[in-house]
């Protein structure tokens, strides 16, 4: 290893050639070389890998509104012998992602990166690519979701394991602008109890990424059976929960090591809460925010900038004396 650069002799730009580059990695590496027409195809491939895995070259060209020849040119530019090899690579990557164990992902990552800066740029690039174009891809379903947020009696945000943080944070954020929001994040002693009360006036949002848990699938099935408005936020149409609804939002998440990136999921949450805050009844939202501020003030929840610990203790002592 060259300790000055962090590179091993067999590595180039910090990347070992121990495994073939994935389709996503090839697209990112060629981002500055592809044409605008090819970019349309690349965006589809990065947004939903199964689209390439399950589509013919003609179908893919039609989706992107480009010629069949453009599909072939992109495959060649990415280093494949043609579209069939590119499609096979997408199939292999998709199957691996859907069935991977955490230990498998970690094992594959060992020895690939030799320079920290290169690994940081790679991860940053994957997250940026995951987020780019998200608003255009999800718009019709997204608008329907915002409508349901305004109509629903109650909102349930469901997610377990790595999908738990997005569900928890969406529930936390929505509670600022509307009432009746509950997060169900894997408590066997209560989540299914909550689902007993779900009805056709409720909205259920399920976050679930590969490997898909039976727990989330079961809750999604219950919500659908009870007639709730069900939305599934996932990373692939192969997700079992998508069988219960047409309201599916695909958010492409990438793995580097042991866990999936949640960056695109939190971007989506920011979009949901930002738009809902503008679309819901303005007076109700402002009244709720005002009431929350009163609760915070009454419970001295936040530190006041510029107040020393001594001044805070004195204030608390005075308050106790008054009681």
Outline the secondary-structure elements.
Layout lengths: L22 H7 L6 H12 L1 H6 L2 H8 L3 H10 L5 H17 L2 H8 L6 H16 L2 H18 L3 E4 L5 H11 L6 E4 L6 H5 L7 E6 L5 H12 L3 E6 L13 E3 L12 H17 L2 H17 L10 H14 L1
Parallel strand pairs: 1-2, 1-3, 3-4, 4-5
Quickly list its features.
single chain; 323 residues; alpha/beta; Arc Repressor Mutant, subunit A; Rossmann fold; 3 domains; five-stranded parallel beta sheet; 5 strands; 7% strand; globular; disordered N terminus
Can you tell me about this structure?
With 323 residues, the protein is an alpha/beta fold. The protein has three domains: 23-131, Winged helix-like DNA-binding domain superfamily/Winged helix DNA-binding domain (Arc Repressor Mutant, subunit A, Orthogonal Bundle); 138-280, Rossmann fold (3-Layer(aba) Sandwich), CATH 3.40.50; 284-322, no CATH class. 55% of the residues lie in helices and 7% in strands. It is built from 15 helices and five strands. It has helices at residues 23-29, 36-47, 49-54, 57-64, 68-77, 83-99, 102-109, 116-131, 134-151, 164-174, 191-195, 214-225, 263-279, 282-298, 309-322; strands at residues 155-158, 181-184, 203-208, 229-234, 248-250. It has a five-stranded parallel sheet, with helices on both faces.
Q: Specify the CATH class of the largest domain.
A: Alpha Beta
CATH architecture of the largest domain: 3-Layer(aba) Sandwich
Helix content: 55-70%
CATH superfamily of the largest domain: Glucose-6-phosphate isomerase like protein, domain 1
Spatial strand sequence of the major β-sheet: 2-1-3-4-5
Helical segment tally?
Answer: 15
Strand residue percentage: 5-15%
What's the CATH topology name of the largest domain? Rossmann fold
Q: Quaternary status of these chains?
A: single chain
How many strand segments? 5
**What would you call the structural class?**
alpha/beta
Poorly predicted residue ranges? 1-18
Average pLDDT, rounded to a whole number, is: 82
Tell me the series of helices and strands, N- to C-terminal.
Answer: HHHHHHHHHEHEHEHEEHHH
Query: How many domains?
Result: 3
Distance between the ends: 69 Å
| Mass-distribution shape | globular
Taking Cα atoms only, what radius of gyration do you get, to the nearest Å?
24 Å
The largest sheet, given as strand count, sense and whether it forms a barrel, is:
5 strands, parallel
């Amino acid at each position: 290893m060259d300790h000055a650069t962090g590179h091993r002799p067999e590595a180039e730009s910090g990347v070992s050639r121990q495994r073939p580059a994935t389709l996503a990695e090839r697209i990112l590496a060629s981002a500055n070389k592809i044409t605008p027409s090819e970019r349309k195809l690349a965006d589809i491939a990065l947004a939903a890998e199964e689209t390439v895995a399950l589509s013919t070259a003609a179908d893919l060209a039609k989706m992107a509104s480009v010629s069949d020849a453009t599909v072939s040119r992109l495959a060649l530019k990415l280093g494949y012998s043609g579209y069939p090899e590119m499609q096979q690579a997408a199939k292999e990557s998709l199957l691996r992602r859907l069935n991977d164990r955490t230990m498998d992902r970690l094992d594959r990552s060992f020895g690939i990166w030799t320079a920290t800066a290169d690994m940081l740029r790679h991860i940053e690039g994957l997250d940026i690519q995951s987020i780019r174009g998200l608003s255009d891809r999800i718009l019709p379903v997204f608008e329907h979701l915002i409508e349901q947020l305004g109509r629903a009696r109650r909102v349930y945000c469901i997610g377990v394991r790595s999908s738990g943080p997005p569900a928890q944070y969406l529930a936390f954020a929505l509670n600022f602008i509307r009432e009746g929001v509950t997060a169900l994040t894997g408590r066997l002693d209560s989540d299914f109890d909550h689902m007993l009360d779900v009805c056709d006036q409720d909205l259920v949002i399920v976050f679930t990424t590969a490997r898909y848990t039976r727990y989330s699938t079961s809750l999604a099935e219950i919500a659908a059976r009870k007639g709730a408005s069900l939305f599934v936020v996932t990373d692939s149409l192969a997700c079992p929960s998508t069988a219960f609804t047409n309201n599916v939002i695909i958010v492409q998440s990438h793995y580097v090591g042991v866990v999936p990136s949640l960056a695109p999921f939190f971007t989506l949450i920011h979009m949901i809460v930002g738009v809902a805050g503008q679309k819901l009844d303005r007076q109700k939202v402002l009244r709720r925010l005002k009431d929350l501020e009163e609760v915070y003030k009454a419970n001295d929840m936040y530190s006041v900038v510029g107040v020393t610990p001594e001044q805070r203790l004195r204030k608390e002592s005075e308050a106790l004396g008054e009681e």
